[in-house]
Design brief:
Elements (H helix, E strand, L loop, with lengths): L10 E10 L2 E11 L4 E5 L6 H8 L7 E6 L4 H9 L2 E4 L11 H11 L4 H14 L15 H12 L6 E5 L7 H16 L3 E5 L3 H7 L2 E6 L2 E6 L1 H8 L3 E6 L5 H7 L6 E4 L4 E5 L2 H10 L6 E6 L2 H9 L6
Parallel strand pairs: 3-7, 3-8, 5-6, 6-7
Antiparallel strand pairs: 1-2, 1-4, 8-9, 10-12, 10-13, 11-12
Helix pairs in contact: 3-4, 8-11
Family: Belongs to the ABC transporter superfamily.
InterPro entries: AAA+_ATPase (IPR003593), ABC_transporter-like_ATP-bd (IPR003439), ABC_transporter-like_CS (IPR017871), ABC_transporter_ATP-binding (IPR050763), P-loop_NTPase (IPR027417)
EC number: 3.6.3.-
Length: 313
């Protein structure tokens, strides 16, 4: 990121709070997003990610604390901030009866851009989103991946300095997800600062320079994906699968073999620095799992350790 650490922060939040009546959705978080980086918010449903994003987008006033976006106070200079932002909402909100080109041109006019400029910009963005051959197609005829690419293209009409993406690839197939990742890599390489919320751990590992894990309105951890894995997990994980009902007994027989042992309904996880050696030791104790796997620790291991495995509605 070069000298970005010495430049003014794109987003600076201190003791940021958001309440809805008696419910405190965001409970005094501190966040700093640096110029040119991709910053992620991870967390289960109800963790406070969307509430935080809406405050940064200057469409939802904070309840308490301090927030500066592009050096400005959203409560005072919201319109100026929004003019310099790009926002990709969780659900596509395109004009479905208009064509791809018309969606881009009409949206550009909302920012007061000239007709000539938005015509030129629309062509540039259709090429960027690989939609040039669908320029005159109505949005209703597009696939989910095409609609998502168009939504991202539309958010770039005003050449934003900061792009907010809320669950950008939810519901897309792997090919469409990877194509979108490529587009986001290109934006970041061009100097656009990205803030991303996602439920996909592999997406966060691929795209984010730094991220925070939010849980119950607070920040549980912050750092780069590699830093978080190093801090909250081990280098490797051994997965042992046993017949139903045998996991607890197996876990007792492997006590002391790993830094941490987790028993799941269908398998036992051993968190260790040396996976193959740990697996050999498990076999030496007479354990015969149905299957075994040694893998690298991932951000998902960190996420589940910090937020738990219980489903949050």
């Amino acid at each position: 990121m070069g000298d970005s650490e010495h430049e003014p922060a794109m987003v600076q939040a201190k003791a940021l709070v958001k309440r809805f009546g008696d419910f405190e959705a965001v409970r005094g978080i501190d966040v700093e997003v640096r110029p040119g980086e991709a910053f992620g918010f991870l967390g289960p449903n109800g963790a406070g990610k969307s509430s935080t994003m809406r405050m940064i987008a200057s469409v939802s006033p904070r309840t308490d604390g301090d927030l500066r976006v592009l050096g400005m106070d959203p409560d005072v200079e919201g319109p100026k901030i929004r003019a310099r932002l790009g926002v990709v909402p969780q659900q596509d909100n395109l004009d479905t009866e208009l064509t791809v080109r018309q969606n881009l041109q009409i949206y550009g006019r909302y920012f007061g851009l000239s007709r000539a400029h938005v015509r030129s910009k629309a062509e540039e963005l259709m090429e960027f989103a690989q939609l040039t051959d669908r320029a005159n197609a109505e949005v209703d005829s597009l696939s989910g991946g095409m609609k998502r690419r168009l939504t991202i293209a539309r958010s770039l009409v005003n050449d934003p300095e900061l792009l907010l993406l809320d669950e950008p690839t939810t519901g897309l197939d792997p090919q469409a997800r990877h194509l979108l990742w490529d587009r986001l890599f290109r934006l970041k390489a061009g100097g656009t600062t990205l803030i991303i919320t996602t439920h996909y751990m592999d997406e966060a590992e691929q795209l984010c320079d730094r991220l925070v894990v939010m849980d119950n309105g607070r920040i549980a951890a912050e750092g780069s994906p590699a830093d978080l894995i190093s801090r909250y997990s081990t280098r490797e994980v051994v997965e042992l699968r046993f017949p139903n009902g045998e996991q607890e007994a197996a876990a007792k027989r492997i006590e002391g073999l790993a830094e941490r042992v987790e028993v799941l309904p269908d398998r036992v996880l051993l968190y260790t620095m040396t996976g193959e050696a740990t697996l050999e030791q498990a076999h030496a104790r007479g354990l015969r799992p149905l299957s075994s796997l040694v893998r690298r620790s991932s951000l998902e291991d960190v996420f589940l350790r910090l937020t738990g495995r219980t489903l949050v509605d």
